[in-house]
Amino acid sequence: MDASSAARAWRDHLQRLQSLRGAQALLAWDQQTGMPPAGAAARAGQQALLGELAHSWAIDPEARKLLDVLEASDEATHQRMALVARREVDRAVKVPSALVRRLSEAHSAAFGAWATAKQDDDFSAFAPHLRTVVDLALEELGHIDPDRHPYDVALEAYDPGTTIATLRPLFGRLKDGLVELLDAIADQEPIAHVPLPADVKAQRALNVEISEALGYDFGAGRLDVAPHPFTIDIARQDVRITTMFDPDDMLVALGGTIHEVGHALYEQGLPTGALEHTGLDRAASMGLHESQSRFWENAIGRSEAFCAWMAPKARAHLGPDAPDARTLFQQSNRVDRSLIRVFADEVTYNLHIIVRFELELALLEGTLAVEDLPEAWNSAYADVLQVDVPDDRRGCLQDVHWSHGSFGYFPSYTLGNLYAASFTKAIEAAHPTLWDDVADGRFAPVLHWLRHHVHQQGRTQDAPDLVRAVCGDRDPVADLLDHLWGRHGAMYGARR
Questions:
Q1: Structural domain boundaries, residue 33
Q2: I want to staple 355 with a disulfide (CB 3.0 to 4.6 A). Which of 92, 102, 380, 426 is the partner?
Q3: Segment 315-330 mean pLDDT
């Protein structure tokens, strides 16, 4: 078989696989938005069956033979298709089926134990499960590539091209810079929290209008409510978002909706045509995906220009008591040392992530025992964020990630913020009228830039290479710190 024929056959294979995964996604969306509680057991069985089928298709020996032909091709696109596919297929093939079952069972048991332990504030009840999850993760990563550091192997599942060697110095410099900024802000007069209550129905109308203005295509998606906001792609023309409305604080839904719109715009803008169903028509990494949500949520959605544009719209939907532009800007950008990652402000958020990165790396390296995790967590929070952790429920039990073995996932959040900062600088250089456009509600030029430079590139490059190609040899740590000093430092009157 020649390379062109192999490429067509591989595209047919991926199209079938993506259709199956779309069905899985639809079931997952339904489970989190509208499925009756009594349907949980049946849904678990349905998802398990589809999961087994998807796995068998993904590792099909006949399909894998096509990759040998693509690897030997002289065409760069064929070679890239094979490389991207090998990363996923080889992971699935190299892990023994018996271990896959043990992992599934351990993650299911650990999730249930974590939920109960968090509710009861009892880390000791979760510790044996976490120890099992760590041990099985190391076993799995050893099967995939015994010659590399297990954390590097774990990272590749989420952010190919990123390694410990790049993260350690990157995060180290960022941590030092953030602590300096945080200390400078702490010396200034604090900004008081102002409640921003609003009718939920009116909030929904406002969020829909904002989503449409940013470029989200409701003809190829929809907005629903979920306990934990998420974006899910069922197909290229069916990318759905969810949010959570709080009647006591309109900013909860606003930030969540814009964040998910950023994810959805990326999915709606991924390449079609020649790259469709090649495996290159997907997001380059979790970090790059997070850069899109963080760009729209933070760089745009929390800017003075955006607040100025949005204030009249908020008044039109929420009534005369809606906050003015200055209040929206200040409340969106208040800085506060806190315990909970998901509620953290833009300045402190990455410190929460860096703590998790250092701890999970230590867990996989064996320099931190599971039993010592609460003490290590509390010590890190006291040192880095200068907050005392009163209990494990608000400490090392607050996140679900480790219960299902998602080691290497947390760095994606900070990588997203770093990438977003450099993208913002590049867009400002390309469009000197950026902030005037935002203040006037003209978001199309920004979306067009992202479509061309990021979305339509798909997986043709790993994320670090794509960012470098788009932004040049910028320092993302310097870009992010400049952004935070320029917005939050200036708002508080702190001097660098």
A1: 1-94
A2: 380
A3: 97
Q: Give dist(CA 331, CA 329) in Å, integer.
A: 6
**CATH of residue 251:** 1.10.1370.30
Q: What is the DSSP string of 123-184?
A: HHHHHHHHHHHHHHHHHHHHHH-TTS-HHHHHHHTTSTT--HHHHHHHHHHHHHHHHHHHHH
Same domain, 262 and 403: yes
Terminal-to-terminal C-alpha distance of the chain: 63
Angle among Cα 211, 216, 219 to the nearest 5 degrees reads 115
Beta bridge partners of 233: 239
Q: What is the tally of structural domains in the chain?
A: 2
Q: What is the mean pLDDT of residues 101-108?
A: 89
Structure token digits, residue 237:
């023309």
Tens-place pLDDT, residues 445-476: 999 999 999 999 999 999 999 999 999 999 99
Select which of 260, 267, 290, 304 is catalytic.
Answer: 260
H/E stretch holding 234: strand 231-235
Q: Is residue 443 part of a domain?
A: yes
Say if residues 403 and 114 touch (Cβ distance below 8 Å): yes
**378-386 — which CB contacts under 8 Å span 24+ positions?**
380/355, 381/339, 381/355, 384/175, 384/179, 384/351, 384/354, 384/355, 385/337, 385/338, 385/348, 385/351, 385/352, 385/355, 386/337
Same domain, 227 and 358: yes
- For residue 92, the model assigns a pLDDT of 86
HEC string for 449-477: HHHHHCHHHCCCCCHHHHHHHHHCCCCHH
Determine the Cα angle at 264 with ends 259 and 266, to 5°.
105
**366 pLDDT band (50/70/90 cuts)?**
very high
Q: Among 40-54, 145-159, 473-487, which stretch is predicted with the lowest mean pLDDT?
A: 40-54
For 191, 301, 479, 489, 492, the CA distances from 333, given in Å and listed in that order, are 9, 10, 18, 10, 10
For the cut 90, the answer to whether the pLDDT of residue 108 exceeds it is no
On whether residue 86 sits in a domain, the answer given is yes
The whole-number pLDDT of residue 101 equals: 86
Higher model confidence: residue 118 or residue 496? 118
Name the domain boundary from 94, 115, 135: 94
Identify whether residues 36 and 168 lie together within a single domain: no
Q: Is residue 274 part of a domain?
A: yes
Does residue 194 contact residue 327 with C-beta atoms inside 8 Å?
A: yes
pLDDT at 104 over 90: no
At 51 the pLDDT is 85
> How would residue 40 be classed by pLDDT, with cut points 50, 70 and 90?
confident
Q: What confidence score (pLDDT) does residue 100 get?
A: 87
User: Is 260 assigned a catalytic role?
Assistant: yes
Q: Which of 298, 230, 223 is nearest to 260 (CA)?
A: 230
CA distance 357 to 364: 11
